[in-house]
Amino acid sequence: MADLTESLHSEHMVLNMGPSHPATHGTVEFKVTLDGETIVDLEVEIGYLHRGFEKSCEKGTWEQAFPYTDRLNYCSAIINNVAYAMAVEKLLGVESTERCQYIRVITSELSRMADHYTNIGAGALELGGYSAFLYFVEARELVWDLLEKVCGARLTSNYVRIGGLKNDLPPNFEQDLQEVFKECRKLYHDVDTLLRKNRIFLDRMRDIGGISTEEAIAYGFTGPCLRACGMEYDVRKAQPYLVYDRLDFEIPTGTTGDNFDRYLVRMEEINQSMRLVEQCLKEMPEGPVNIDDPLIRQASKDKVYSKMEELIDLFILVSEGVKPPKGEVYLPTEGANGELGFYLVSDGTGKPLKCRVRPPCFALTQAMPRLCKGSLLADIIPTFDQINLIGGECDR
Amino acid sequence: MPEESKNLGTLKDRFGDVIFDTHSYRGDDTIIIDKQHILEVCRFLRDEADLSFDFMMDLTVVDYLNQEDARERFEVVYHFYSSERNHRLRVKAPIPESDCTIDSIIPLWIGANWFEREAYDMYGIRFNDHPNLKRILLYEEFEGYPLRKDYSITKRQPLIGPKN
Q: Could you say which residues of chain A have pLDDT below 70?
């Protein structure tokens, strides 16, 4: 008997998951201390996708930061574009045109849909639901095709500009959108019926990775993960920007704050985003998409090629950049993962003195040890998926 | 007097001697305080019923190297939000280059942990009593603080493995 206990390994086992692991989508490393299959301790190592976002932004003009913002949350690049553009506009003290604001809402909401599709699809895949993944990737594909028609790119859109947009919506956009939405609703229905009452999915999601509202707030949770706790905080409602105050939409909330509630919140947000897009298309006025100030948003090429002043302004804009007055602003927006805020400091020159982004999933990922301790090793997978770490945004 | 600055009034009444300056540029309420009193001020922000800032939304640092009217070289910048009152506040604490330290606010918001680690990683600001103040986005062996203005963007560090 004594020999038997001697050869039993009862000490804790340390397991490294990642940084390149099929379940840790996004390069992140978990150092898991296990007692059997139960997680005793978890340490998260991030930074594998750090590429010096802020330093790069400080090097170029204000306008040149747009491609970098694309690469923050690359599942919903346009939301980052919009947030950054609005922050610079706040710094400049200008407001974009009404049509521009509607288009920004439309493209942001389409991006949000794509983001949630990716998140839920990938989450289902990791729990063995391959069909749900394929359906939602198809839906995402349709949305991306639509965005491709708008801005020419699928992933890194680079669509928004300071004081306007790269271009207006393409012709026949509304018809294309209606066809896409019809298809998306069908796919949504398929996935919803596959997952919502699926025994395996429920067992893996329900009562796992839960957190109370108070704790979530202390950790700085925002977005779907906070709303799953039952707190109705959405920047679009709390401090409306663009034209969100004119639109009719609801904020879905959960009750327990577990993974299943997060899933439900995201699913409902897809519906709400569709509602928002449809309303915008109905209410959107005609008019210019760019503000009429050639020192902020370059004039159209026909003006630049035929008028002296516009040509000079374009030279100044390209060589020196927009020059916001000395000062600082913080502009919060609702990203797909939570509050996406830009804190910008200008010293009055053409380059940012500071271009800080408040990444929503940074605060969420931080709580991983709290969410996982005491649960099983396999529970890391659904929890981590619902946290929705996006390396580009978390590591910058 | 515009409505936004009501909070600034409350804070000035309470902490008149530790607040260096206040402003509401573009509608963002801002207070600039003495770094020695950061914990005390933050506790008041969180617990005072009229303010009740429950969210620590963001924490970062700005390097004002060679900026003429800068108070000190660095400033630690906090952004708070109150879900109950739906208002925001920016708190800034100037940090001199000779003493890059400030008290950690983890006792008040546990979520400040990683934000403070990032500030340390990028700017070399040390947060007193932080339980695990080490680099977060960069690797342990990295030398220098890359977001400081005197760290050249073209500087390269080939070391990626452990030192031996």
A: 1-2, 4-5
Domain that holds residue A142: 45-395
Domain locations along chain B = 3-128
**Amino acid in the structure at residue A69:** T
pLDDT per position as a tens digit, A215-227: 999 998 999 999 9
> Which residues of chain B neighbour A90 with C-beta distances below 8 Å?
26
Among candidates B159, B164, B127, which has minimal Cα distance to B144? B159
Reduced to 3 states (helix: H, G, I; strand: E, B; else coil), residue A357 is: strand
Q: What is the dihedral of CA A117, A119, A123, A124, to 10 degrees?
A: 0
CB contact under 8 A, A332 and B57: yes
- CB distance A118 to A77 below 8 Å: no
What's phi and psi for B32, nearest 5 deg? -115, 120
Q: Both tokens of residue A371?
A: 């969410």
CB contact under 8 A, A218 and B28: no
Query: ipTM of this model?
Result: 0.89
Assigned token pair, A348: 């009055």
Answer yes or no: is A33 within a domain: no
Residue keyed to tokens 């006025």: A285
Closest Cβ opposite residue B57 in set A47, A329, A339: A339
CB neighbour list of residue A227: distance below 8 Å, 6 or more residues apart: A233, A234, A251, A252, A253, A254, A265
**Per-residue model confidence as pLDDT tens digits over B69-81:** 888 889 999 999 9
Nearest to A340 by CA among A148, A136, A110, A73: A73
* DSSP secondary structure letters along A32-78: EEEETTEEEEEEEE--TT---HHHHHHHS-SGGGHHHHHTSSTTSHH
Q: What is the CATH number of the domain that holds A257?
A: 1.10.645.10
**CA A210 from centre of chain:** 22
Q: Which of B90, B130, B104, B46 is nearest to A356 (CA)?
A: B90
Nearest to A327 among B25, B58, B153 (CB): B25
Hey, what CATH class is B3-128 in? alpha beta
Q: How many independent structural domains does chain A possess?
A: 1
Inter-chain CB proximity A363 and B114 less than 8 Å: yes
Residue A300 CB contacts under 8 Å (≥ 6 apart), including other chains: A290
Asked if A16 contacts A29 with a C-beta cutoff of 8 angstroms, the reply is yes
Is A298 within a domain?
A: yes
Helix, strand, coil share of chain B (percent; to 5): 25, 25, 50
Contacts of B113 by beta carbon, 8 Å cutoff, 6+ apart: A366, B106, B130, B131, B132
Cα(A137)–Cα(A76) distance, rounded to whole angstroms? 14
Longest dimension (CA), chain B: 63
Asked, for residue A13, whether it belongs to a domain, the answer is no
**What is the DSSP annotation of A191-242?**
HHHHHTT-HHHHHHHTTSS---HHHHHHTT--THHHHTTT----HHHHS--T
Half-sphere exposure of A199 (CA within 13 A, CB side): 0
* Structural domain contains residue A14: no
Is this model's pTM higher than 0.80 or not?
Answer: yes
The answer to whether the CB atoms of B62 and A218 lie below 8 A apart is no
